[in-house]
Amino acid sequence: MAMAYSVDLRRRVIDFVEKGNTQEKASEVFNVSVSAITRWFALRSETGTLEKRPLNRTAPIFKSEKLGAYIEENPDALLKDVAEHFNGSITGAFYALERKKLTLKKETFYKERNEDERAKFDKQLAEIPKDMPVVYVDEAGVQQEMKRSHGRYNQLPVF
């Protein structure tokens, strides 16, 4: 981010223009933009000074300590929940968590392997006959064939 020009430079540019020179000439001599010079004249007429205006920044909604404590208490919170708790936006919640290097990834139900259960399941799989037809299961139900319904499915051989 660019820094503001010093008040001394602003004063010298304004004096140069008030001595009868144009803003374009002042722009060339002092290597500043004409729009900056115009803004400085407006600033001086509004405030009576060439001091930089204070920034209108609000206090951060998502305070680091409070955000960390909230996530510890509510590890399954969605971005929407975090935003509502702090009266902010979902985007603001996302960036606040990103700055703090926190993720809202959900943990899996099973945290550790149970080797006995795995062995039992492997044994059940081994008992299934090899010639049994394969069934693909998705969230929508059961599907026994995997033909494409879009694209080049007519051009592909069906086995």
Summary tags:
elongated, 159 residues, single chain
Secondary structure elements and pairings:
Blueprint: H1 7-18, H2 23-30, H3 34-47, H4 64-73, H5 79-85, H6 90-99, H7 115-126, E1 136-138, E2 141-143
Antiparallel strand pairs: 1-2
Task: Give structural notes.
It is built from seven helices and two strands, in the order αααααααββ. Strand 1 (136-138) and strand 2 (141-143) form a beta hairpin. The two termini are 62 Å apart. It is elongated, with a radius of gyration of 33 Å. The chain has a two-stranded antiparallel ribbon with strand order 1-2. Among the domains are: 7-47; 64-99. The protein has helices at residues 7-18, 23-30, 34-47, 64-73, 79-85, 90-99, 115-126; strands at 136-138, 141-143. With 159 residues, it is mainly alpha-helical.
- Report the mean per-residue pLDDT as an integer: 80
Radius of gyration over C-alpha positions, nearest whole angstrom = 33 Å
Terminal CA distance reads 62 Å
Shape label = elongated
| Count of DSSP H/I helices | 7
Report the uncertain regions. none
Report the helical percentage: 40-55%
Structural class by sheet pairing and helices: mainly alpha
- Major beta sheet, specifics? 2 strands, antiparallel
Number of strands: 2
Question: Roughly what fraction of the amino acids lie in strands?
Answer: under 5%
Strand arrangement across the biggest beta sheet? 1-2
> What is the succession of H and E elements?
HHHHHHHEE
